[in-house]
Amino acid sequence: MDSAGPVESDRRAVKEQEGETSMTDKFVVRSGWLIDGTGTPTLRQGFLQVTQGRITSVGSGNPPSEKGTRTLDFSHCTVLPALVDCHVHLCRSGAPEPPQQRQSVPRASGETDRRIARHLRLCLEAGIVAVREGGDPHASTLRFRKERLAGDSPIRLLSPGAAWHAAGRYGAILGRAVPPGRTLAECVSQHLDSADHVKIVQSGLNSLSRFGYETPAQFATSDLKAAVEAAHGNGLRAMIHANGFLPVRSAVEAGCDSVEHGFFMGKENLERMAERGISWVPTACAMLACAQTAPPGSLERETARRTLDRQIELIASARAIGVQIACGTDSGTPGVLHGSSIWTELSLLAKAGFSVEEAVRCATFHGARLLGLEQTLGILASGMPASFVAVRADPSRLFETAGRLGPVALYVNGAEVAIPVPESLILAEGA
Ligand SMILES: [Zn+2]
Predict the structure, then answer these.
(1) Is residue 428 part of a domain?
(2) Surface-to-core class of residue 62, CB atoms within 10 Å of its CB (0-12 exposed, 13-18 middle, 19+ buried)
(3) Which of 28, 41, 201, 333 is the most exposed place for a label (fewest CB within 10 A)?
(4) CATH code of the domain covering residue 72
(5) Higher-scoring residue by pLDDT: 88, 109
(6) What separation in Å is there between the alpha carbon of 268 and the centre of ligand 1?
């Protein structure tokens, strides 16, 4: 069994070996196992050569030795690309109790900012270097990204501001209702200049009392399509919350970039998504959290368990059909903790039949591509920035170990990120 002790001493050993980390120098990363993020088989004793923060070569065995090149010895670790979480709620804590949860979106900006900063630190400490916010009612995460996030922060935050939902329907905790007399497309168009992407809520939540109960679509397909086209016309992508066959079908027909959750969507929708290149963010770990936090023996617990099993079957179908899955956790929702939950999501992909390499690709390359960050993140290949994590486990125990202990090291653009992460790496000075 691993324990916190050896991990701490690992971190110290690595620090002593490398001395001062600098973007301008050369170093070699030796790994026990190297997973490059493309889905290709693990390289045993893989190495990376890094110059000025970029990877110059990837190989296995003994790296060519060059005078003055430092070696980072992760030969007891699996090294993989730094991760991307495509669905987070940074204003919310993930507190498992529903009453606390309801009160957990503070309006005051000082308190909210400290909370967002704390959650971003947890993400980094889990090896996540880019997150996509799923919406908050006061657009606090978007304001934070613009006004408070340190300019040289190792973590990227993309936010839609507030999500849009239909009046009287689910979504108030994520954003705003379309006002009477306005269309969704008009509302979306008005806010395109400031947001990083668009988030639309097209169905309700999954029922935990009626298994597979489908809520009606919130918006007509034509209205949804006009909203997605407005986003695309402004260079923004659209993420659509949709559960059930009809809500997902309309999201797919509208041409969205990703279906969020997609519980009970059915195989026909998966086939259309594969044809149209639409990503799926299944957030299965959020349903696992429902199953784990509901009272033992309750209907909610049983329904959540069955819903999760159904989602895992659907994920297996998506793999067979060739739908691009990107990992998102829904962290911040009840029982879903920021950061470490990404490793739980990876374990659930493995349960659905993904190889370790295929699962890692969903939380690295596929995530980076969905966020439009694939030029700088997601794979370990020559020419890419050296942004990677090292986990003290072989690939067979990678997800479980990382979920429990976190990575032993995180590098972004060739520079080590200290763990625990100092607040100064998140909050801009004097902000
Ligand atoms: Zn969400």
Answers:
(1) no
(2) exposed
(3) 41
(4) 2.30.40.10
(5) 88
(6) 24
Residue 67 alpha carbon to ligand 1 centre in Å: 50
CA of 92 to the centre of ligand 1 (A): 10
User: Distance from the CA of 166 to the center of ligand 1, in angstroms?
Assistant: 16
Kindly give the distance from the C-alpha atom of residue 126 to the centroid of ligand 1, in angstroms, as a whole number: 19
Ligand 1 geometric centre to CA of 222 (Å):
24
CA 137–ligand 1 middle distance (angstroms): 12
pLDDT tens per residue across span 47-99: 999 999 999 999 999 888 777 789 999 999 999 999 999 999 999 988 875 55
Least confident of 53-67, 96-110, 413-427: 96-110
| Per-residue pLDDT tens over the stretch 179-216 | 999 999 999 999 888 899 999 999 999 999 999 999 99
CA of 316 to the centre of ligand 1 (A): 22
**How many independent structural domains does the chain possess?**
2
Q: Is residue 430 part of a domain?
A: no
Joined together, the tokens standing for residue 167 give 């009046």
The Cα 362–Cα 358 span in angstroms is 7
Q: Which domain holds residue 72?
A: 4-82+378-421
**C-alpha to C-alpha distances, 102 to 98, 105, 138, nearest whole angstrom:** 6, 7, 15
